[in-house]
Design a protein that fits this description.
Length: 116
């Protein structure tokens, strides 16, 4: 197993945290929506034949507010995740184009010395 550079470890940690935030926000949003639906159905059941509109509106508003708060955090975490994924995938390509090699890529460096 190759030794990771500190910057690569930091990017992998950022990528993991961003994925955890995305997952958590999505799960909490879905849970909030389901909880709001349960509250709405409960208001319908308790309201008899004519449900109270205020109770329905409150339940729906609560679930939508939770989703509205968490969706921007999900999008920001997704952008950070994609950016760190892209950065982790491209260092060798950037290094070859600029004529420099990464310090932890000794196998490729040895091959290049033998070719030249």
């Amino acid at each position: 197993m190759r030794k990771q550079a500190p910057a690569e470890r930091r990017l992998r940690r950022i990528k993991s945290v961003a994925a955890l935030i995305m997952f958590g926000c999505i799960v909490i949003s879905v849970f909030g929506t389901v909880h709001g639906m349960v509250r709405s159905f409960n208001a319908i059941a308790l309201g008899g034949s004519a449900p109270i509109e205020a109770d329905l509106a409150e339940s729906i508003q609560w679930s939508m507010t939770l989703t509205r708060i968490l969706m921007p955090a999900t999008f920001i975490a997704a952008i950070v995740w994609v950016g760190s994924w892209y950065k982790l995938r491209t260092p060798l390509t950037i290094g070859i184009r600029s004529g420099r090699l990464a310090a932890d890529d000794s196998g490729h460096q040895h091959k290049q010395q033998n070719d030249g």
